[in-house]
Amino acid sequence: MSYDKTRTYKKIEIIGTSKKSFEDAVQAGISKASQTLDKLSWFEVEEMHGHIGENGKIDEYQVLMKVSFELK
Known about the structure:
The chain has one helix spanning 22-36, and strands spanning 9-18, 40-52, 58-70. It is of the alpha+beta class. It has one domain (9-70): Dodecin subunit-like. It is elongated, with a radius of gyration of 16 Å.
């Protein structure tokens, strides 16, 4: 009898930040998560926020996202 390989994933929330853009904040969060989590699989952006500096310009981009990784 043949069995299909089954996989199980865990999903966690992380917040990525960047001085450049929302896209860079996503990449920064994924890059950092990949340093401590194996087999990252996917992400979904839940919220986008930013901080406005004293000069009235965007000072920081922030993204709340969920990432999943395969459990061993």
